[in-house]
Specification:
This protein has about 550 residues and is of the alpha/beta class. Among the domains are: about 110-185, no CATH class; about 300-545, 3-Layer(aba) Sandwich (Rossmann fold). It is about 35% helix and about 25% strand. The strands form six sheets. Strands 9-12-13-5-14-15 form a six-stranded mixed beta sheet, sandwiched between helices. Strands 21-22-23-18-24-25 form a six-stranded mixed beta sheet, sandwiched between helices. Helix 4 crosses helix 5. The longest helix has 18 residues, at about 475-490. It is globular, with a radius of gyration of 24 Å.
């Protein structure tokens, strides 16, 4: 046992890291960091993309990558030295003693297998032997229990589905279920709630808290400081491979001593930040007043869409959705996975045909047109997808991706080379990214390229489907400020879909709350957040983690 700086007795160290250094090709990425994690304790590691968070986590499970040079004064798990282990020795730790939740569920899950098969493999022989034989029925029940534990609805049905049949949130929950299968002593969670809506995020945080209560150690990597405040006992703030602040969660998040930590906290979008630029605190630039004779950017009326599932069951994905969107304004759409948000977005984009209802774009018919008729106006509406990797051709470089988008929307005479440079600069990427392929980019970098691609044809409407969910808080702030400036300069309208209600309140003029395909609440952002009328809206707001000194882990 040991005593921390607050005088509390701590359990023995489960993870002990002292002076860890990680290099690739002679370049030091992690520069002598030290931390430890005890059983029943959660350490959060926060910082920007490229700070060394993920490579540190991967080193603790033997997945640092080829060519990595690792050195440390101490690097142990449960008393076992982690330096110099063979692949076979690592396999004895992974899954059984150390669970790992990766950030990108679509890449992590096997697309050719059902979700149940994936979890069953992770389960191995854990807790399902009967008289020396594996009991298939018990295995299936355990898979269902794990899916239910992480909040997957209809777990028996979902267990038989493949990853591409699930939403991003459901895929992430399945990945977490797989990591928890053997009840490992240590769970390393790399952005485990990135793709989840507020209520499911709360469920996952409860799962982590319960695991901590059972004595599991947890290392949580997250750019969401509100999530960190909900579950972490201590926080390590990483910048350029160095820990710049380290201490109890309450101290770090409410009384930060380092300027960098203070800048991260200032960049968190919320009700309080509405109307200001996150990166500077300045008032948002004033948008031009819309001309009286200018049509609505979008007019959506009474959309209905029903899909036929297995056994010819009918499911109403969208049921009577209507809204208006003015030029230069932002409509936020919120709701749980399966509420109809993405189907509504696909109808608006002209990618899905509604069974009933209509969409007008800039005062002209849109949903009623066929693909050939839409082609000339396709550049007027653009999209930023939640999962950028699956929307890119992996063979194309970043430059080719952006050049293709520029040709689709801009006329002859445009200096394409200069336009590519400007787009990269707008989203915080240098010209050196021109030659890179999507698989060589981090999740945050891919998302920034996706945003640049959406901006390229100079659309009048951009549908943003979780556009900042993969970004750390400072880059997220830069992108949200960028979108605000573009609205002020061009009058572009945004349909903004997000599970992050802090982001939604910050960016939105109006908010649409969806549940089971229907609109349960629709009004101004302030009205919906401050005086919600529907119980479902109130439940969403109640589930949002907040950085509140009175509620932080003691």
């Amino acid at each position: 046992m040991s005593v921390d700086t607050a005088g509390r007795v701590r359990a023995p160290k489960l993870v002990d890291v002292q002076d860890l250094r990680i290099s690739f090709g002679g370049k030091e990425i992690v520069k002598g960091i030290s931390f430890d994690v005890s059983a029943g304790e959660c350490l959060a590691i926060v910082g920007e993309s490229g700070s060394g968070k993920s490579v540190t986590a991967r080193t603790l499970i033997g997945l640092t990558g080829e060519g990595a040079e690792i050195d440390a004064a101490t690097l142990t798990f449960d008393g076992q030295n982690l330096l110099g282990r063979t692949d076979r020795q690592w396999r004895g730790l992974r899954g059984e003693q150390i669970g790992f939740v990766l950030q990108d569920a679509l890449v992590s899950l096997d697309q050719l297998r059902t979700v149940g098969s994936e979890i069953d493999e992770a389960l191995g022989n854990y807790g399902v032997r009967t008289s020396g034989r594996l009991n298939r029925a018990l295995r299936e029940e355990r898979v269902v229990e794990l899916l239910d534990l992480v909040g997957v609805p209809e777990p028996r049905v979902r267990a038989r589905q493949r990853p591409h049949e699930l939403s991003g949130g459901l895929r992430q929950r399945a990945l977490i279920a797989s990591a928890l299968a053997r009840d490992p002593k240590l769970l390393i969670a790399d952005e485990p709630t990135t793709a989840l809506d507020a209520t499911v995020q709360a469920q996952i945080l409860d799962v982590l808290a319960e695991a901590k209560g059972r004595g599991n150690g947890i290392i949580l990597i997250s750019h969401d400081l509100a999530v960190v405040s909900r579950v972490a006992d201590r926080v390590a703030v990483l910048r350029d491979g160095e820990i710049v602040e380290y201490g109890p969660t309450r101290d770090v998040l409410t009384r930060p001593s380092h300027e960098y930590t203070r800048s991260l906290l200032a960049a968190v979008p919320s009700r309080a930040s509405k109307g200001t630029l996150l990166t500077s605190g300045d008032t948002l630039p004033a948008a031009p007043a819309p001309a009286h004779d200018r049509p609505l950017a979008l007019q959506v009326r009474d959309l209905h869409k029903t899909f036929t599932g297995k056994a010819r069951t009918q499911k109403a994905a969208v049921n009577g959705v209507s809204f208006d969107l003015e030029p230069g304004k932002t409509l936020g759409i919120v709701g749980e996975s399966g509420s109809g948000k993405s189907t509504t977005a696909r109808i608006v984009l002209g990618l899905t045909t509604p069974d009933e209802g209509s969409v007008e774009l800039n005062g002209r018919p849109w949903s009623a047109l066929n693909d050939a008729q839409r082609r000339a106006s396709r550049h007027l509406i653009s999209v930023i997808y939640q999962d950028p990797l699956s929307s890119f051709d992996p063979r194309w470089t970043v430059e080719r991706i952006l050049r293709d988008a520029l040709r689709a929307g801009r006329g002859p005479g445009v200096d394409v080379d200069a336009a590519v440079s400007k787009l990269l600069d707008q989203v915080g990427l240098s010209d050196e990214f021109r030659t890179r392929h999507p698989l060589r980019l981090s999740g945050g970098q891919r998302q920034r390229v996706a945003i640049a691609r959406a901006l390229a044809p100079e659309p009048s409407v951009i549908v943003c489907d979780e556009p900042v969910s993969a970004l750390d808080v400072s880059i997220q702030a830069r992108i949200l400020d960028l979108l605000a400036r573009l609205q002020a300069e061009t009058g572009v309208a945004l349909v903004f879909i997000s599970h992050d209600l802090g982001v939604i309140h910050h960016v939105s003029d109006d908010i649409l709350v969806m549940r089971d395909g229907e609109v349960v609440e629709y009004g101004t952002a302030d009205a919906v957040f401050e005086t919600p009328r529907h119980p479902y809206t109130r439940s969403l707001l109640d589930a949002v983690p907040r950085i509140d000194a009175g509620e932080l882990v003691a």
